[in-house]
Specification:
Shape: globular
Helix content: 25-40%
Strand order of the largest sheet: 1-2-3-4
Order of helices and strands: EEEHEH
Length: 88
């Protein structure tokens, strides 16, 4: 995974914070956002900045809820609806 060209990991070791970005199709998926000792809103702002640098022009998507969703919304994300999981 560490060598996959569309997968990017970012970390701030002193703050024990980090996240992953996965470019797929016409969007960039945001996952594993971990603020730990950092301010969650700052980490989400970093997600936006670094996604713009590594995957320019692509929309960001994620599946946050609760406090994570609150921090993402404060950083400029928009809630589009609940996550649906389809099983067959």
């Amino acid at each position: 995974l560490l060598h996959h060209e569309n997968l990017h990991f970012f970390s701030a070791p002193q703050a024990e914070a980090g996240f992953a970005l996965l470019r797929t199709g016409s969007v960039t998926g945001v996952s594993n956002v971990v603020p730990r000792r950092a301010d969650a809103q700052t980490v989400w702002s970093d997600v936006v900045t670094l996604a713009g640098l590594t995957c320019p022009g692509l929309d960001l998507v994620g599946y946050e809820h609760g406090p994570d969703l609150t921090a993402a919304l404060a950083a400029g994300f928009a809630e589009t609806g609940p996550l649906r999981v389809w099983l067959r």
